[in-house]
Write a structure and sequence with these properties.
The protein is of the alpha/beta class. It has helices at residues 17-26, 58-62, 88-95, 108-122, 129-133, 142-145, 149-157, 170-175, 177-187, 216-228, 233-247, 258-279; strands at 7-9, 30-32, 71-75, 100-105, 165-169. A 5-stranded parallel sheet has the order 2-3-1-4-5, sandwiched between helices.
């Protein structure tokens, strides 16, 4: 028997979705997909290659979910990456019309810099931070798309009622994890007083990443990930951390200069104000 998810963690990239996927999976009433980012609804490619680990076959995708659970979820940040990837809410709506969505967001400037560092660590970005920010105003900039939260949220609110979407600030998840998770559990209609000692863990911090050798990220994505993605996330994390620290150099990137910070503040200011209006949240710790 196969099944579809009942809810989605739709982003944002570099806002803690891997950790949130892990926390949600600890709840006895929630089943999260064994593959954290199946990207099933992210197509068509729109000129941007899919990750090699994407699950594009519906039968294979449905096998990720256990129909004995009433609450099933997956987390794919590619679902909030318009206009680089268009039509995701519509595709989800066609198959899962009653879906719920958890949108984890973060200070947009911090998220942009973290995304850049991640891309450098993966070997996908060779430019300096300042050079990469030269194209930040491009609507298709990979660094900007994921940080324009209101633009992404509005696409979902056109297709789904606003009570189906919960926006959570990563700062809340870091500062008071139990309270933030209780809010998410209540939204998903599961027991909201559940707690676990594993809630104290934090996975895949970019600040702890190492700089991978050229071609290493592609090798891992194409040869290693498909063979190990069924291994529990915490086990994969420990093995990868040991390997990287043993063989890869520390990740070194330049700090964000004042002129670049001002550029990002001006770029994101209007979108952040729309997000505050849409959600009623202050995001008081943000730098925008």
């Amino acid at each position: 028997m196969t099944a579809l998810p009942t809810f989605f963690v739709i982003g944002a990239a570099k806002a803690g979705t891997t950790s949130l996927h892990y926390y949600l999976d600890q709840h006895p009433q929630i089943q999260m997909s064994a593959i954290k980012e199946p990207h099933f609804f992210a197509g068509p490619e729109n000129g941007i290659p899919f990750p090699p680990e994407r699950i594009g076959d519906r039968d294979e995708y449905e096998r990720l979910f256990d129909p004995t659970f009433e609450v099933r979820g997956e987390a794919s940040p590619s679902y909030t990456n318009a206009p680089r990837r268009e039509g995701v809410p519509e595709r989800i709506g066609e198959l899962v019309p009653d879906a719920k969505f958890v949108y984890l967001v973060r200070d947009p400037i911090e998220r942009t810099v973290s995304h850049y560092r991640h891309s450098v660590a993966s070997g996908d970005e060779q430019r300096s931070l300042r050079q990469a920010l030269d194209e930040i105003a491009d609507p298709h900039s990979y660094l900007a798309c994921h940080s324009l939260y209101a633009r992404q949220l509005e696409l979902y609110l056109r297709r789904f009622p606003d009570d189906r979407v919960l926006v959570i600030d990563q700062a809340e998840l870091l500062l008071d994890r139990e309270t933030a998770l209780r809010e998410i559990f209540a939204f998903l209609a599961v027991e909201d007083d559940f707690s676990s000692e594993r809630f104290g863990e934090e996975l895949w911090k970019t600040s702890a990443r190492r700089a991978s050798p050229p071609g290493q990220a592609t090798f891992i994505a194409q040869a290693v990930a498909p063979r190990t993605r069924w291994i529990p996330a915490d086990v994969r994390k420990q093995v990868r951390r040991v390997y990287e620290r043993a063989f890869w150099p520390p990740l070194e990137t330049e700090p964000l200069g004042d002129d670049s910070r001002l550029l990002l503040q001006e770029l994101y200011a209007e979108d952040v104000e729309r997000l505050r209006a849409l959600t009623g949240r202050s995001f008081s710790s943000w730098s925008v």
